[in-house]
Specification:
This protein is α/β, with parallel strands linked by helices. The chain is 29% helix and 19% strand. The protein contains three helices and five strands. Strand 4 and strand 5 form a beta hairpin. Helix 2 runs parallel beside helix 3. The N terminus is likely disordered.
Length: 150
């Protein structure tokens, strides 16, 4: 039974961007706190978290690219892309995040890499992960061409 209060990833709380014009994402799910993060750790092999802020210009610029990266990776069931607002009182990354945007990459619940504002490095890292995941015999997914760097 998955940890947390959600039956599936699709049940994670998500603010409707039409109701909240400050929300800079439309597809990538928002998480809020350690419970959401633990749920993802228990249900996905790779979790990529973008810690952002509604007031952050670079976050707003990178948000559409982060969403496109998530769309291009969605055929791999072991990987999930989410974002978290640094200004939330329950932000799981508040103590470790010193700049926004910062991308945190977790594998099996362990932080393996953090990338501050460098989207091309994130794309390269995701392409490497997708290549590794797609070559596993249990994956069964053909990923085609690598994701382009923006």
């Amino acid at each position: 039974m998955p940890q947390g209060n959600y039956a599936s990833y699709g049940d994670l709380p998500s603010e409707d961007p039409l109701k909240n014009p400050k929300d800079i994402f439309s597809i990538v799910k928002k998480i809020d706190g350690v419970n959401d993060l633990n749920y993802l750790f228990n249900n996905f092999e790779v979790c990529i978290v973008m810690v952002s802020a509604t007031w952050c210009g670079p976050c707003k610029q990178l948000a559409p690219m982060f969403e496109q990266l998530a769309k291009n990776s969605k055929q791999v069931l072991e990987i999930v892309f989410v974002y978290e607002d640094i200004d939330s009182e329950t932000c799981a990354h508040k103590e470790i995040c010193t700049n926004v945007p910062t991308f945190y990459i977790y594998h099996k619940g362990k932080l393996v890499k953090s990338i501050v504002s460098d989207f091309p490095i994130l794309v390269d890292t995701v392409n490497n992960l997708l290549g590794i995941l797609s070559k596993r015999p249990d994956s069964g997914k053909s990923l085609g061409a690598p994701i382009k760097r923006y």
